[in-house]
Design brief:
alpha+beta
């Protein structure tokens, strides 16, 4: 993903999505409902779990997960919107 001023890729947010097969918004909702879940994940992954929007799943035409992208540098919802825009511009399906 090309980076513009203020936008940076976030491999951690992307990895979180792949690990859980969930988009960042669902991870954030889960974290808000179950704080112990975040503590456990951060324990397992050395504090590298970021349960906020900005991680976006990339799916193929059949709905299978093909990868993920993560963006940081703005508010989490804007990070997600940036990732979705870039993924869709490549002709792929984004799930934020």
């Amino acid at each position: 993903m090309a980076q513009g001023p203020g936008a940076m890729t976030s491999p951690v947010k992307a990895c979180d999505c792949i690990m859980l097969s969930l988009p960042g918004s669902a991870i954030q909702t889960l974290a808000e409902a179950q704080g112990f879940f975040v503590q456990a994940m951060n324990g397992l992954y050395g504090g590298r779990f970021v349960p906020v929007e900005g991680g976006v799943l990339i799916r193929n035409g059949n709905g299978a997960i093909r990868g993920a992208a993560g963006v940081t540098g703005d508010s989490s919802d804007n990070d997600a919107a940036c990732a979705v825009t870039r993924i869709r511009s490549a002709g792929l399906t984004a799930e934020a």
